């Protein structure tokens, strides 16, 4: 799974688990206020989000093994992937621990990921499904880097210690030149005070010394007024970072898509919809388009942007927030990707192919994830 899989954040998974046995309310989707003919085709794909290397020669898939533990599988283009985390590697996370959030370093020589801590203490009343939900949100995870073949492993964070008191992260996003990295880390898990916890955005320099990777010069670049924040990815200009945040909002469920200039600190709100859930934005490879998930098509339903009744679809927009287009129809009748009548679905997150012509996408059809391949036609104006 990708670096932003906290679609329903920690609290959401908890509530949905409790409500799983209840029937979902059947609702008619509102007509989208934008072109809904963008996707030329959408088909079911093998399980696991596909994240391609920058040169399109390799890919990594994050999916559970036979025991339900999320592992990393890496393959060459045209070949089946091989698990690089199913056996113990020196300095790597144990095979029985979850590995999530894989991303490629722009050099293609490294994969950065989240590895489950082996000594965390979950809440007293927990189940394996709930714990996995928290892990998917970034809690109790450390930053690791590995070679694509799994031959070298390095742990780049030590969260939960006096040196790094944060207790997990989402990310990591690299600038296209590979010299800087950004991630969000959780610093306050009081969900009564902060619905999704309080997070801070960290920027670091990425270095390799004699082939050993590290993060240096860590700096807090959290925009003023943000409690909930997660990074998407960078535009080709090496400075424009797409983020999801609740900047200036009293209700983080109305999170928006912003562009943060890491050189000036300037923040631009692209969606400006405080009663709509907008999350998991990612720039297309050329930086001209943004894919994100949103409850926008269901905005006539006052509950569609809440953790209990969240419904979202994948959307596209220009990098200035204009030309909003609906891509998927998980919650509509009569489409290839439609879920059974009366059962809601949450578009989770997607990953662009290097040529920008298709995405690998996940949607949450509780309690399971579905994987889709979405190819874009000329109507998407890519």
Low-pLDDT ranges: 1-5, 7-35
Strand order of the largest sheet: 1-24-23-22
Radius of gyration: 19 Å
**Relevant CATH superfamily:** TolB, C-terminal domain
Please describe the biggest sheet, giving its number of strands, its sense, and whether it closes into a barrel: 4 strands, antiparallel
What are the defining features of this structure?
382 residues; mainly beta; Neuraminidase; four-stranded antiparallel β-sheet; 2 helices; 24 strands; 5% helix; globular; disordered N terminus
Structure description:
The protein is mainly beta and 382 residues long. The chain has a single domain (9-19, 28-380), classed as 6 Propeller (Neuraminidase). The chain has helices spanning 9-19, 128-136; strands at 39-44, 49-52, 58-64, 70-76, 82-83, 99-104, 111-116, 141-146, 153-155, 169-174, 180-188, 198-209, 212-220, 229-234, 240-245, 256-261, 267-269, 278-283, 289-294, 313-318, 325-326, 346-352, 358-365, 368-376. Helix 1 packs antiparallel against helix 2. It starts with 8 loop residues before the first helix and ends in a 6-residue tail after the last strand.
How would you summarize the topology of this molecule?
Elements: H1 9-19, E1 39-44, E2 49-52, E3 58-64, E4 70-76, E5 82-83, E6 99-104, E7 111-116, H2 128-136, E8 141-146, E9 153-155, E10 169-174, E11 180-188, E12 198-209, E13 212-220, E14 229-234, E15 240-245, E16 256-261, E17 267-269, E18 278-283, E19 289-294, E20 313-318, E21 325-326, E22 346-352, E23 358-365, E24 368-376
